[in-house]
TrEMBL record:
Biological process annotations from GO: regulation of cell shape
Source lineage: Bacteria, Pseudomonadati, Pseudomonadota, Betaproteobacteria, Burkholderiales
Organism annotation: Paraburkholderia sartisoli
Domain Rod shape-determining protein MreC beta-barrel core: 130-273
Region ranges (Disordered): 279-376
Ranges of Basic and acidic residues composition bias in the record: 293-309, 317-338, 359-369
Protein name from the UniProt record: Cell shape-determining protein MreC
Biased composition (Low complexity): 339-358
Length: 376
């Protein structure tokens, strides 16, 4: 039995021929569009024509999502408004307290005749990217020497210390984070006032407070702030908090593990401080080589000078004795016998008596010559 349609209904090519034609056409369009982008115009026209239909189909979804977002956003805004209001009240109280403490501090420093602390200026900056070295804790900020950033300036955020500027470019700067293994910050414990130095660790997840004696009063939870003794960081900036204290009997120092207060890796906006230290510089230490040479020269000069002085004194002693004895002999009358004068001067040195006799002989010779000259 034949199931094909009668000749009256046969029109056009067969189904197989049409299938092959459309497959070839689809492949040609795909290749031409991928190679030469020939269907961009057609695609744009079709997209513009179908856009109203797409928007009309998405209206119910948009209405539902808008109502949900409105409810969520109104609740979120209320909670954030309450939090900001409470934080504003807290900050206003802290500002009033800080103003009162600042006035009291200025009064006490003026009373004690101490120098006033200079205010610290700052430059806002934003982190651009991390450095390429994965073994260092460094970042790059979008402020450089043209914006007044100097090498060594401290970098902070609203929570505390972030790091320090270690390299400056015209439009960018490199900041070494607080957790870097080569970074050190002089700190002070707020509760006890103990001063020490805090270092980063190789892992970069904690801080190490070094040079703390075992007998020091350090507890978990103590807050560390900058001491300001290095002249780089202003005093009083929050740095870290103590989390663990390990004391061992065989070591002289305790191991104190701390964590930074500020989110070192999570910060985005930073402040670069322009801190100017008014403390005078340290006095210059003497050169040890020059001091050793000077001390050696003094030791060598003392033994040579003393014998010379003694010899000069010994040479001057008989001369002074001779002069004194000669003066005494000249003042006595001529009729006194010379033996009596010699007996009195016998206790003195013999060179003195000889000198006196020589002077007497010279006086007698002068007297004889004058007498011969006056005869007629």
């Amino acid at each position: 039995m034949e199931y094909s349609p009668p000749p009256l209904f046969r029109q056009g090519p067969s189904a197989l021929a049409r299938l092959v034609f459309f497959v070839v056409l689809a492949l040609a369009l795909l290749i031409s569009d991928a190679r030469f982008s020939t269907l961009e115009i057609v695609r744009g026209v079709l997209g513009a024509g179908l856009y109203p239909l797409q928007r009309a189909a998405l209206v119910p979804r948009d209405l539902f999502m808008g109502a949900a977002d409105l409810a969520v956003s109104s609740t979120t805004l209320r909670s954030e408004n309450e939090q900001l209001r409470a934080k504003n009240l807290q900050l206003s109280q802290q500002a009033n307290l800080a103003a009162a403490l600042g006035a009291e501090n200025n009064h006490l420093r003026a009373l004690l005749q101490l120098s006033q602390r200079s205010t610290t200026q700052s430059t806002p900056a934003e982190i651009q990217y991390d450095t390429r070295d994965p073994f260092t804790q460094k970042i790059v900020i979008g402020r450089g020497s043209q914006q007044g950033v100097n090498d060594g300036s401290p970098v902070v955020n609203e929570d505390g210390v972030i790091g320090q500027v270690t390299r400056v470019f015209p439009l960018q700067s490199e900041v070494t984070l607080l957790t870097d293994k080569d970074q050190a910050v002089p700190v002070q414990i707020v509760r006890t006032g103990l001063r020490s130095v805090i270092y980063g660790t190789p892992k970069g997840d904690s801080l190490d407070l070094r040079f703390v004696p075992i007998s020091a009063d350090v507890l978990a939870g103590d807050e560390l702030v900058t001491s300001g003794l290095d002249g780089v960081y202003p005093p009083g900036l929050p740095v870290a908090k103590v989390v663990r204290v390990d004391k061992q009997a065989d070591t002289a120092f305790a191991r104190v593990i701390c964590v930074p207060i500020a989110q070192v890796r999570g910060a985005r906006q930073l402040l670069v401080l322009h801190y100017v230290n008014d403390v005078p510089p340290r006095p210059a230490e003497p050169d040890p080589v020059a001091a050793a040479k000077e001390a050696k020269a003094r030791r060598n000069a003392k033994p040579t000078d003393k014998p010379a002085e003694k010899g000069a004194g010994a040479a001057k002693a008989p001369e002074k004795a001779a002069e004194k004895s000669a003066d005494k002999a000249a003042e006595k009358p001529a009729e006194k016998p010379a033996a009596r004068a010699a007996g009195k001067n016998a206790r003195s040195a013999q060179p003195a008596s000889a000198a006196a006799g020589a002077r007497k002989g010279e006086k007698t010779e002068k007297a004889d010559k004058s007498a011969q000259g006056t005869k007629p």
